[in-house]
């Protein structure tokens, strides 16, 4: 049996020019310890946002937490298809 890679209808052309809708890195100060009132240490938390599909303010927000995996931006994947369909705000955290 031959196996072909599944593309799910995605192509490298289109919105976001390929694998990512955006690769623009944004940063904010994040508390290192949320449970200690005495610990005021912070670190820079990287995140990505994609607002192109976001409709009225009552639309959902999709948050993708990359965790320990590599995160190079908002991926042009099935989550982006859903975001376009429902007018969502896409947010990625690493």
Number of domains: 1
Largest sheet, strands/sense/barrel: 4 strands, mixed
| Uncertain regions spanning at least 5 consecutive residues | 1-16
Overall pLDDT score: 83
Total number of helical segments? 1
- SSE succession: EEEEEHE
Structural class: mainly beta
What's the gyration radius in Å?
A: 17 Å
Q: State the total count of DSSP E strands.
A: 6
The amount of helix comes to under 10%
Q: Give the distance, in angstroms, between the N- and C-terminal Cα atoms.
A: 38 Å
Strand content: 25-35%
Strand order in the sheet with the most strands: 2-3-6-4
Tell me the overall shape.
globular
Note down, in words, how this protein is organized.
The chain has about 90 residues and is mainly beta. It has one domain (about 20-94). The protein contains one helix and six strands. It has one helix at about 80-85; strands spanning about 20, 25-30, 40-50, 60-65, 75, 90-94. The strands form two sheets. Strands 2-3-6-4 form a four-stranded mixed beta sheet. The longest helix is centred in the C-terminal third of the chain and has 9 residues, at about 80-85. It is globular. Mean pLDDT is about 85; it is low at about 1-15.
